[in-house]
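DM from R.C. (forwarded with permission)

"hey, sorry to bug you on a friday — could you get me a structure for this? deadline for the figure draft is monday and I only need the backbone to look sensible"
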Amino acid sequence: MSKYRVLYIDDEKDDLTQPIKKKLEAKGSLEIILNKPENFEDQIDKLQTELDGCVALILDLQLNGPQEDVTNEAGDVFQVKYQAPPLAQMIRTYATEGKLPDIPIILCSTEDKIQISFSRDFTSHDLFDWTFLKDDIDDETIEKIVSLIKGYQNIGKNIKDFDKFLDRNYSEIDERILSRFVTEENPPVHEIARVIFKDIVQPTGVLINELTLAARLGVDIKESGENWNKLIDHFFYTASYKGVYHESWIRWWNDKVLDVFENITNENLASLDAIARVALLVEKTGINGLIAANPIELFESSIFWNICEVTKMPLDPFEGFKISGKEEPKPWQDYSYVSLFAVVSEPDLISKKGIKIHPTDNERLIAARKKID
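My reply, with the result:
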């Protein structure tokens, strides 16, 4: 099996980075080239050679730690004076100019450094395709890196053929999403990749993940067991997303889900509660083991459409509380929500995840808390 060659730059000692390299190479799909950072100008020049044959770049967030095994001519311990974001910005610029290959840039770090620095620096987020934690590397981490690489390659081969890399007739979805690339003569691959991944694949909206799919169908995944898999495999497979990144980010087209449900039941999904949705699915599909989901504690409605980002349970967005993000959702995206139960019972987790209630829902949350206090 051919391996994807990936350059990994980290300032840590070899006894810390070698285990990371070993974990990333464990499945045999990646070949990790491990290097230490150089002075900024030297690093940019050196990358033109180092990235030759590489299809992805992994950067440690904080490259400016002292390299105790390297000293300058004066005998001082070598230390660069920059972190990953400015280096990534320069790489993106050079890639746009054709001086460096246009490949995924993936950030890695420890949880505390991500929370202290990167999570609050919104301006840097678009420079990186994805972020993983050094302590959490597993098979899924490797598979996602490979999926990002394949996505870039697919987009690069079909730079203007949106139908091809989305595996769908682009005119059937919101054409505002990629509109800027229609008239742009030679758009950078990383720009298209960023919009697809961060505006379509990751957020809820045009595409939905499995938990949101279950919420909209009214099904309790855990209680339904294998019957849930039968339902989506046999009846909703035509709604599954097969475009770039689909190997690791499992998604369904929301509009196709609605169409499939209507074709099966002759009913409008959005107008029914969970019990009615599941009853119709059982009747029309013959899958008797489907179980309807119940409302989250402290909520009453089962007209589910989204999930609580803390409990991962389904909720009616009219009962949930919108989460404030770094920017307002785009017209084709949904807000993320949190439940009252999560706010009351998991304050530490709410804080750890950096969840803040949207200003438009603050007063409603205060009123809801007063009722239960």
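R.C.: lifesaver. DSSP finds 17 helices and 13 strands in the chain.
me: no worries. The chain has a mean pLDDT of 93.
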